[in-house]
Amino acid sequence: MNRMEPNIKIEEIIGKYLKQEVSAEEEAYLQEWLQADASHQQEYEEMAEIWRASEGVLLQHQFNTSNAWTSINARITALPSATRVRTFKLLPWTKMAVAAAIIGLIATGVWRYYSVTTAGSMQHITARYNNQQVKLPDGSVVFLRKNAVLNYPRSFSEKERIVRLEGDAFFDVTTNAKAPFRINAFHSIVEVLGTSFMISATSAADKIWVASGKIMFTEEDKAGNHLILSAGQKAVFTDGQFTQGGVKDSNYLAWQNGVLNFNNTPLQQVIETLNDYYNASVILSPEIAAKADHIMVTARFDNQDLPYVLEEIKLTTGLELKRDAQKNFMLYELQPAAGK
Hints:
By secondary structure, this protein is α+β, with helices and mostly antiparallel strands. It has ten helices and 19 strands.
């Protein structure tokens, strides 16, 4: 293996890789290192566990170095001995240095799952590299999908609770009849007293799925154009129009729990769900697209990767799977040979 630097620098490269700041040369070096020995993959997973341990620390608005060390060290210690003892192993002082470096990076704001900035009395949170949980001043909890942006005051008034959302988030709102909870989305306003629901707020459309309670879904600046939605209902607002329907599955929460459920679901809807969940580009050949609403899929996937899911769908539907010239996954139908 070509070594860019002494072996001890692999920890720095792994840290940059987890932050998605690694260069092409460093990533190539990391991949070579991982493939050189099976124990290297195990060491990588152990350091990734330290990274994940930092998530709870990052939810604190005020960073506490002592608490951070306690949290991360507890996670390292809690790893099963079979995980911590390797044929190839970082020396104890090295692992401590890595953990300490992680804490230092977090403390200086370099290594973050999401960014938190304060402007006056407002908090601005962006879920940068992962889904994030945020607890609001009233005790309400918001689960932000990766890349979602949430703005809210550091303290709510006694008469109303107002936040602004861009992206996808699931809200579990604390009940307070005296202070309605309002979410300003791109094109609409959602108002509740206490309930749980999912919102997707984008420049193209605002969408909502209600898990419990009731909400009022209103066009921004047009109070007369609104819907009242109850548990088990969903709606989309786009181009000044609402479209309402029933929630048929829980796939709108797949980004949060990793579970995809399809029960006699049209193939076209399945593909749309997969593309949203995996941020992928799965397409259908023209002849399959023409009849995709009549090809039904029944399957359940729990945190499986996309190639595995597509292979299962291929077997379920009897279709074929390939990569097209643009490297998109394509489902198509095998045509019989000429003359047969």
